[in-house]
Design brief:
Blueprint (H helix, E strand, L loop, with lengths): L1 H21 L3 H11 L4 E4 L3 E4 L4 E3 L8 H6 L3 H4 L28 H8 L3 H5 L2 E6 L2 E6 L4 H13 L35 E3 L27 H9 L2 E3 L10 E4 L1 H12 L5
Antiparallel strand pairs: 1-2, 2-3, 4-5, 6-8, 7-8
The structure holds zinc ion (ZN).
Zinc ion binds next to strand 6.
Length: 267
């Protein structure tokens, strides 16, 4: 009897875990990825994505990787491996579980191919938008600048908006690596913005180490997160390695997140 119960418990744990992973299949994820980057992708076959520039990028290197390995050496399949929870799926106060960093896993080759190979190339695509009276420089590639303008317009319509978060924005375009890594920050591509740093919480400031972040803290309200998500931006507050000031334009990650939301949310 006990043995049967133990087997049932193991079965239900395994079953639940695979159900969450299967909520959006690998094929569906790739289709949404292709749709989201239609402006940059020429073709997608079983093994490779071919960009309009002619560059081919391997979808799956077949390697089993630790989380840190996936961050440093991500293929496209790794990039889409964790489903981002929308604000409907996960309350603003919920703490991300260990090494859950949806959207933080990125393939730099792909990101550079989409936004520019160098600071000079990215700079050519910059446009200036008005953001609560502040000028922000963002890329026009993939419609990022227009998406950010729509976020601002939506935020302005929120009566109870706490504007201290959206005034004195922390930064947009900055060709640089992520602190402590060799990976490019999405700020390099002018496709990310930081809220007011005085209202921000960041895993490194809390004394966390890669793969070991004991404290989670956030002050950003749900209505700000919802406005960004609506227009294709993911929030760094959803990451185990959290960065609550940070939003970046990731239309494929958001499209997969919305499909998961429609199907009852991944838990
Ligand atoms: Zn940032």
């Amino acid at each position: 009897m006990l043995r049967a119960l133990a087997i049932f418990l193991i079965w239900s744990v395994v079953h639940t875990a695979s159900a969450a992973a299967d909520l959006v299949s690998p094929g569906e994820r790739l289709n949404l990825f292709e749709e989201a980057y239609a402006g940059a992708i020429a073709a997608l076959d079983e093994t490779h994505v071919t960009l309009k520039s002619g560059k081919k990028i391997l979808i799956d290197d077949g390697l089993r990787k630790s989380h840190q390995n996936r961050l440093t050496n991500a293929d496209l399949e790794d990039m889409l491996s964790q489903i981002y929870p929308t604000i409907t799926c996960m309350s603003i106060d919920e703490k991300p579980v260990r090494n859950f960093d949806p959207g933080r896993i990125r393939n730099d080759t792909f990101m550079k191919a989409v936004f520019g190979q160098s600071a000079k190339e990215v700079r050519k695509e910059l446009v200036t938008i008005d953001w609560f009276g502040q000028k922000l420089q963002v890329t026009r590639r993939l419609g990022v600048a227009n998406a950010l303008k729509r976020v601002e317009a939506d935020l302005r319509r929120i009566k109870e908006l706490d504007t201290s978060f959206v005034r004195n924005m922390g930064g947009t375009f900055n060709w640089r690596r992520i602190a402590g890594t060799k990976r490019m920050s999405v700020h390099s591509f002018a496709a990310a913005v930081d809220l007011n740093t005085k209202k921000a919480d960041y895993w490194r400031w809390s004394g966390g180490k890669p793969g070991n972040v004991p404290k989670y803290k956030n002050r950003v309200p749900a209505n700000i997160v919802a406005a960004f998500e609506k227009h294709g931006f993911i929030w760094g507050g959803r990451w185990y390695h959290y960065d609550t000031m940070h939003f970046e334009y990731r239309p494929a990650i958001m499209a997969i997140a919305r499909l998961a939301e429609q199907r009852g949310c991944a838990k």
